[in-house]
Design a protein that fits this description.
Layout lengths: L5 E9 L2 E8 L7 E10 L2 H9 L1 E2 L2 E2 L4 E2 L3 E9 L11 E4 L2 E2 L5 H4 L10 E2 L12 E5 L3 E3 L6 H19 L7 E5 L3 H12 L4 E5 L3 H9 L4 E3 L5 H5 L3 E6 L4 H10 E9 L11 H6 L3 E4 L7 H10 L8 E6 L3 H6 L8 E5 L3
Parallel strand pairs: 13-14, 13-16, 14-15, 16-17, 17-18, 19-20
Antiparallel strand pairs: 1-2, 1-6, 3-7, 3-11, 3-20, 4-5, 7-8, 8-12, 9-10
Length: 342
């Protein structure tokens, strides 16, 4: 196919302002592919950058293309990539670690300190018509996986990474705090992993109702039903809220020798019940993105073990990227998707 020399991109020029620009279409490096982007999910981190111009220690100090949950079709390949991949539908794992760092060599490439990650200041993301990615991070998806679901394999991968850290398995009893997109993905992964009880808490009645549609066996109000949460004595607790109160409630709910996995990004520092952690030998860990999750994510989506399409509640053309970013707080919104070819 003929690839245009320029493409449209939705560029964050300053906090609260997205501008549609015409930019040169990128050319793939020898080990890369060029992907015509079909769908890009809106993530909470995109919203933070858009509204505040920063997220944690990352500060947007120059124009940045947001968006890291993406999928599309390979339309060009670098010289070291087989031409048989042309036309392949793919989901993009949006990271480029240093190949020889200690973290990469031991398999923890998500922790590489030299990582270039889509939509983090210094590296443009996927709210544009074409992107490049190393060929091994362009994961083929079958026809059973829609364009929207191909994009949402990224947040599903976060959930899979959390489930692995929590050691979910047959008969597990799990507490998930926060019923946003990641929390709903975690609930689905928990059920697919064999968990028999998946308790989800959220202060929003609407989100609690959504949790029951996406795998929760019970959805509780963390304030009104705090005693029930504390008495649940679950095997694993996964926080997808980033709220200090939720983390404390989850640690209280764990059985002795239970596992806590912190996924949600909240306060930089939080007081911890150290005596409870010590005396009950609780394992407390975090999740930072993912590594080696995409094959599992593709298989789960293709087989119907998880339903990503049902999480998409709105689709926007590229020119309405700002509206997509604003939509995340609208009633009924779970996941908004931008379609750059529109």
């Amino acid at each position: 196919m003929s690839i245009p020399q320029t493409m449209r991109a939705a560029v964050l020029v300053r906090a609260g302002e997205i501008r549609i620009e015409e930019r040169p279409t990128p050319a793939p490096e020898p080990d890369e592919v060029l992907v015509e982007v079909s769908a890009v999910g809106v993530c909470g981190s995109d919203v933070h950058f858009y509204k505040e111009g920063r997220l944690g220690d990352w500060i947007v100090d120059e124009p940045l293309v947001l968006g890291h949950e993406s999928g599309g079709r390979i339309v060009a390949v670098g010289r070291d990539v087989a031409t048989s991949r042309l036309g392949e539908r793919v989901s993009i794992e949006p990271q480029h670690p240093a190949p020889s760092s200690a973290e990469t060599l031991r398999g923890d490439y998500n922790l590489d300190p030299h990582m270039r990650f889509y939509a983090v200041p210094g590296t443009d993301g996927a709210f544009c018509q074409y992107v490049t990615i190393q060929s091994h991070f362009a994961h083929a998806v079958p026809d059973a996986v829609s364009d929207g679901a191909a994009a949402l394999l990224e947040p599903l991968s976060v959930a899979i990474a959390a489930g692995r850290k929590a050691e979910l398995g047959l008969g597990s009893r799990v507490l998930v705090t926060g019923a946003g997109p990641v929390g709903l993905a975690v609930a689905q992964v928990a059920r697919a992993s064999g968990a028999t009880e998946v308790l989800v808490t959220d202060i929003s009645a609407e989100r609690r109702a959504a949790a029951l549609r996406f795998g929760a066996t019970a959805a509780l109000d963390p304030v009104a039903e705090a005693d029930a949460v504390a008495a649940s004595r679950v095997d694993a607790f996964i926080d997808a809220s980033g709220a200090g109160a939720a983390v404390h409630a989850g640690l209280e709910a764990l059985r002795p020798a239970g596992r806590a996995v912190l996924v949600g990004m909240g306060l930089a520092e939080l007081p911890f019940p150290v005596t409870r952690i010590q005396n009950n030998e609780l394992v407390v860990t975090g999740v930072f993105r993912y590594a080696n999750t995409w094959p599992t994510a593709v298989a789960m989506a293709a087989s119907g073990l998880v339903d990503l399409d049902a999480m998409v509640t709105g689709a926007y053309p590229l020119a309405e990227t700002a509206a997509a970013l604003e939509s995340t707080t609208a009633p009924g919104t779970i996941k908004s998707v931008v379609e750059p070819q529109r």
